[in-house]
Design the sequence.
């Protein structure tokens, strides 16, 4: 397999990892920020309740000696993910939390070794967007933009837990993704291959090694947290000016928590995205919100902005 992947090639080129079975061993990694022990322990108990066997990698509970916003040093965080992925006894790699730091460790990974180890389920959101993009571009792998093991939403929200569990074990039962709050920002229907994540991380990935050069042919799923309206404007404008959004077939918007009054955010989203001339749905219920739906990336799907649904054309996992 080559080290690059272009989103305009057929969606069948994305490899879907196998679904999980009862008793599966799942590794927990912390590629970004530090983890609170009590939250992690609660999340591990939830996974055990699903008849999974969680394996906490060595640096998950670490703290960087100087930068308190990192879970240990870059090399240790990268080594955890590397070793988990290359362990044939591990069926999935689940992120403990987001924060910041994935950008610092993604290029320390041995992508030749990761490709040789084969496909596995990978789950995370927020800062983990950097890794989702890397798995898509460097491995052509479908991944899950979903809740993390020590995230408050996962620990406290039953609907969030149920949707992730269904996606992992019975993906055929999670092929229509929708929210009671979803509504069209720009009406219409569109087909494409899902991609996306946290918009700030997508913008920060531009022009970096092996970055996706275009989202052409993709259904873009975006959300963010803690970004003021003018910052969201700047991020979207950067993606527009770079040409990265050229050829996007549709856009699904998730949550915009702590981004200021939603009316102002909504105005920016409409003004910056309507120019694409494609369907846009808002409030689809993924990202930094409760409930937080699990969104498969690298999967062909139909976006119906009027109905407020994203319908997968194949199950997220094989």
Sequence:
């Amino acid at each position: 397999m080559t080290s690059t992947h272009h989103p305009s090639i057929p969606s069948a080129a994305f490899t879907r990892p196998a679904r999980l079975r009862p008793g599966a061993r799942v590794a927990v990694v912390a590629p970004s920020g530090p983890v609170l022990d009590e939250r992690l322990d609660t999340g591990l108990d939830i996974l055990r309740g699903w008849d999974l066997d969680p394996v906490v990698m060595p640096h998950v509970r670490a703290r960087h000696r100087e930068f308190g916003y990192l879970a240990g040093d870059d090399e240790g965080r990268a080594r955890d993910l590397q070793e988990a992925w290359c362990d044939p006894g591990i069926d999935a790699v689940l992120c403990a939390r987001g924060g910041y730091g994935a950008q610092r460790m993604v290029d320390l990974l041995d992508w030749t070794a990761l490709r040789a180890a084969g496909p596995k389920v990978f789950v995370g959101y927020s800062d983990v967007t950097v890794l989702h993009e890397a798995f898509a571009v460097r491995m052509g792998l479908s991944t899950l933009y979903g809740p993390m093991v020590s995230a408050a939403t996962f620990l406290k929200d039953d609907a969030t837990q149920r949707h992730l569990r269904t996606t992992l074990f019975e993906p055929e039962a999670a092929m229509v993704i929708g929210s009671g709050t979803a509504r069209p920002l720009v009406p219409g229907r569109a087909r494409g291959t899902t991609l996306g994540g946290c918009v700030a991380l997508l913008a920060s990935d531009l022009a970096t090694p092996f970055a996706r050069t275009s989202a052409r042919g993709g259904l873009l799923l975006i959300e963010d947290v803690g970004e003021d309206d003018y910052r969201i404007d700047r991020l979207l404008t950067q993606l527009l000016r770079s040409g990265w959004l050229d050829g996007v077939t549709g856009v699904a918007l998730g949550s915009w928590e702590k981004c200021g009054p939603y009316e102002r955010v909504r105005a920016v989203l409409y003004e910056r995205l309507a120019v694409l001339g494609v369907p846009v749905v808002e409030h689809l219920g993924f990202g930094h919100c409760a409930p937080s739906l699990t969104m498969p990336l690298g999967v062909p799907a139909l976006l119906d902005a009027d109905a407020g649904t994203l319908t997968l054309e194949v199950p997220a996992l094989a």
In short: Residues 37-49 form the longest helix (13 residues). The two ends are 19 Å apart (CA to CA).
